[in-house]
Write a structure and sequence with these properties.
By secondary structure, the protein is mainly beta. 4% of the residues lie in helices and 39% in strands.
């Protein structure tokens, strides 16, 4: 399932407590799937913190281009189509800010500086301050305190990997698959079978009521993850791996 945000009725999701990530002036990555249901009449945000800085937007005044507000509006090269699932990602690496659409780097690399505010509001489907709400479907939103490699972002967009495969730096992960008035941070609740996330719990509450849809990106995603110190692990009587992909910390993640 995916969450269905409605601009006219201000349906969006926001954290019940401040989002703490500890990034400061370091690197970071945001990733999510979006499917706009209407052409925006004004600039809209699909993910944002701190009202918004940073925030991922679709800007009507720039021909529906995707961009990121981080110390200013940073447009990328391609417009986002209505009625189509699109994977969006933005990463900061050093002083560079890059946007990715469906796993492909888009447009200009922007030069940025400054720090990201910590312990602030986070919204999915809004600008971080209850405004500029998005009209459409959103799924699989995640935030990391590192710059994922281009190949890793491409794997997320292709459905070969999921957000929890990069557990070392995953600060928040909202699959948005289960209906309800509250959406739990899968990185904090033990839903992933990982031990790294005890004490984290950035739960999202629905503003204006939660609306859910059976519509999802048409990908053959792996259904669960295990993190092991070795390079292979048994799943029932099967032995499943991802081709020996090493993902930091001397550990490999296996999905099945």
């Amino acid at each position: 399932m995916s969450v269905d945000c409605e601009r006219d009725s201000s349906h969006f999701l926001d954290t019940e407590s401040a989002f703490s990530h500890g990034v400061g002036s370091g690197n970071w990555t945001v990733s999510l799937w979006v499917k706009p249901e209407s052409k925006p009449a004004a600039d809209v945000y699909c993910w944002a913190i701190n009202g918004p800085n940073p925030g991922l937007y679709i800007r009507s005044s720039a021909n529906d281009k995707f961009g990121c507000n981080f110390g200013g509006l940073r447009d990328f090269n391609a417009a986002i189509s209505t009625g189509v699932w699109t994977h969006l990602a933005v990463r900061r690496t050093g002083t560079s800010l890059e946007g990715y659409i469906n796993g492909v780097k888009e447009g200009t690399t922007h030069t940025v500086s400054g720090s990201m505010a910590d312990d602030v509001a986070l919204e999915i489907g809004g600008d971080g301050a209850g405004g500029s709400t998005f009209d459409g479907l959103i799924e699989d939103a995640a935030f990391w305190s590192t710059a994922l490699r281009s190949a890793e972002i491409a794997s997320l967009a292709a459905g070969r990997l999921r957000a929890w495969h990069f557990s070392q730096s995953l600060k928040g992960y909202w699959p948005l698959h289960a209906p309800g008035d509250a959406v739990y941070d899968a990185a904090a609740t033990g839903d992933l079978g990982l031990s790294d996330f005890s004490g984290r719990g950035f739960r999202l509450a629905a503003s204006g009521g939660a609306v859910w849809s059976e519509d999802r990106p048409g990908l053959n995603w792996p259904t669960r993850a295990r993190v092991f110190p070795g390079i292979a692990a048994a799943s029932g009587t099967r032995r499943i791996s991802l081709g020996g992909v090493w993902l930091g910390g001397g550990r490999v993640v296996l999905a099945g």
